[in-house]
Amino acid sequence: MNKFTIKPVKTTAMLAALVIGLGTLASMTYVAQSNSALNEPNYWQSLEGEIGRLKESASTVNQDRRAARKLAALLRQNNEQDKAAEILRALWLKPAEPEEFVVDALELASLYTEMGAFDSAIESYEKILDFDRGRLKSKDPQLVRDYTNLAQCYYIKACACGDPKDRSSYLEKARLTYITAKDKLALADFENAARKEQVRATIAENLALIAMDCKQPIN
Fold first, then answer.
1. What domains are defined for the chain?
2. pLDDT tens digits for 76-122?
3. 3-class secondary structure for the chain?
């Protein structure tokens, strides 16, 4: 089931919390799947051992792609984002099938955003969008997801900009991309009408926040 990014926040303090959730849309997030293990007393003690075991089975991405993804997720939990990014990028560059390209690119874009590498995250989301536009029908909800992700990342980049011109530029990019997402949403074939309405409301709220932000000076 597709999930959409949470709406943007306006304070720097909340930005870090926001970016962690970005880009997990329609992706195979092993971190989420393993959350129940966090309740085990020995979880963090066994994390290093699990990482070591997975390194052996995923020494190359072609040997065990699932193990490689799980290793990247564990490295991310262990604050080794650079190593996790290397694995995800290798998976992304050598997809076994089209869906894997999107899955790994979404994970990588999310990780880049978490690391504060917003330019790399934007590049990843742009490539996902280009890829999906070439293979999906115009009414596919995944295109709404792609435009929403990209718009959200533009907004986060704007929040991180210190230069007024750069900030204004990215806010405008976010606004225009959200408008496109809104137009795509109107035609999209959602199986769940309530979900479609929820997405519509989120996009509308984000556009309202951007409109307010455009009138405010940089802190």
1. 12-213 (1.25.40.10)
2. 888 888 888 888 888 888 777 777 888 889 999 999 999 999 999 99
3. CCCCCCCCCCCHHHHHHHHHHCCCCCCCCHHHHCHHHHHCCCHHHHHHHHHHHHHHHCCCCCCCHHHHHHHHHHHHHCCCHHHHHHHHHHHHHCCCCHHHHHHHHHHHHHHHHHHCCHHHHHHHHHHHHHHHHHHCCCCCHHHHHHHHHHHHHHHHHHHHCCCHHHHHHHHHHHHHHHHHHHHHHHHCCCCCHHHHHHHHHHHHHHHHHHHHHCCCCCC
